């Protein structure tokens, strides 16, 4: 056990050194870095429709059960998201900003649910996950700005759209919280599906209306959020890149939508990373805040990742003790 901890610590120290060197190089070239990195929704099987399809680490009988459970969780998620997408396609095929307003109202909700459950676990004294709380708050902050942009563009003008989106959001909150209690892996996969849909929706819109959008002025909220003030929270939700490596240039409405789309790609990657327990690190952890460099988000071996994981572990523990 000590060897494993020592190895993990050494590995993490090396990663931090590499991370710092890489970040320093990127900061020196900061003005050149304005392009999104290689998120490929169509070519990447990891985010292609079915979302991530993780294989269990070993070939034991428990891994067979786990594989079956993962398939079941992902099938339910895909069925649910496809059903909601069909309804939205029917209602909003000719009203883009209203559709985006509804999507963004719903988009923040799972992050509220994850934070609620994590706070509850912390209140019970079960475990602490500082990085998860920080990153999920930064994700909700980013989605809130998408929502403010859509409101500025008039997406919330109709009473029906506000009524529908807010009622879906309340239902979705309780569903996401229950799913997160049951299986964080399933809840994160569901969010990955939703973020993937958001990416595709904005991508199609940009391809269809790009030339018109280039002639329209940028949203004031977008200029403030993407280019002014403290960018800590903007960097915080992008867990697959070092801080200060993405600084958008916002000249017109096209730039606004390109950056919203790219944000959705970052959410997608973060949600995928979360499906592996203990995998998520704040981009700022171990970078400029040494006091946050603790084992706060590493679970002890005896803990469970939700109710499904607790049942699986108790079943496999019983089986191994019988053998
Ligand atoms: Fe969004
Ligand atoms: Fe999103």
TrEMBL record:
It comes from the Eukaryota. It is found in: Membrane. GO terms for cellular component: membrane; mitochondrion; respiratory chain complex; thylakoid. The chain crosses the membrane at residues 100-121, 163-182. Residues 36-63 are annotated as: Disordered. GO terms for biological process: alternative respiration; carotenoid biosynthetic process. Binds 2 iron ions per subunit. Keywords: Electron transport, Iron, Membrane, Metal-binding, Oxidoreductase, Respiratory chain, Transmembrane, Transmembrane helix, Transport. Its cofactor is Fe cation. GO terms for molecular function: alternative oxidase activity; metal ion binding; superoxide-generating NADPH oxidase activity; ubiquinol:oxygen oxidoreductase activity. Its EC number is 1.10.3.11. It catalyses: 2 a ubiquinol + O2 = 2 a ubiquinone + 2 H2O. Belongs to the alternative oxidase family. This is Ubiquinol oxidase. It comes from Daucus carota subsp. sativus.
């Amino acid at each position: 056990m000590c060897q494993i901890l020592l190895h993990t610590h050494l590995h993490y120290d090396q990663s931090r050194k590499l991370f710092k060197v890489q970040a320093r190089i990127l900061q020196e070239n900061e003005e050149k870095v304005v392009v999104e990195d290689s998120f490929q929704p169509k070519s990447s099987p990891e985010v292609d429709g079915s979302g991530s399809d993780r294989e269990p680490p070993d070939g034991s009988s428990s891994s067979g059960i786990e594989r079956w459970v993962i398939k079941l969780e992902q099938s339910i998620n895909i069925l649910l998201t496809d059903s909601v997408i069909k309804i939205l396609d029917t209602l909003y095929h000719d009203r883009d900003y209203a559709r985006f307003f509804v999507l963004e109202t719903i988009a923040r909700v799972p992050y509220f649910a994850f934070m609620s459950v994590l706070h509850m676990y912390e209140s019970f004294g079960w475990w602490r996950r500082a990085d998860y709380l920080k990153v999920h708050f930064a994700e909700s902050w980013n989605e809130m700005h998408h929502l403010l942009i859509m409101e500025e563009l008039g997406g919330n003008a109709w009473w029906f759209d506000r009524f529908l989106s807010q009622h879906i959001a309340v239902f979705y909150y309780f569903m996401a919280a229950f799913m997160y209690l049951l299986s964080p892996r399933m809840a994160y996969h569901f969010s990955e599906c939703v973020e993937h849909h958001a990416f595709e929706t904005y991508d199609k819109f940009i391809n269809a209306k790009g030339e018109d959008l280039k002639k329209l002025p940028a949203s004031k909220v977008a200029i403030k959020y993407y280019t002014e003030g403290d960018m800590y929270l903007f960097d915080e939700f992008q867990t697959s890149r070092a801080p200060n490596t993405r600084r958008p240039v916002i000249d017109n409405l096209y730039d606004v939508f390109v950056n919203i789309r790219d944000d959705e790609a970052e959410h997608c990657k973060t949600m995928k990373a979360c499906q592996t327990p203990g995998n998520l690190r704040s981009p700022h952890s171990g970078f400029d805040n040494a006091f946050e460099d603790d084992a706060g988000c590493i679970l002890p071996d005896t803990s469970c990742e939700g109710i499904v994981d607790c049942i699986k572990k108790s079943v496999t523990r019983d089986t191994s003790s019988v053998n």
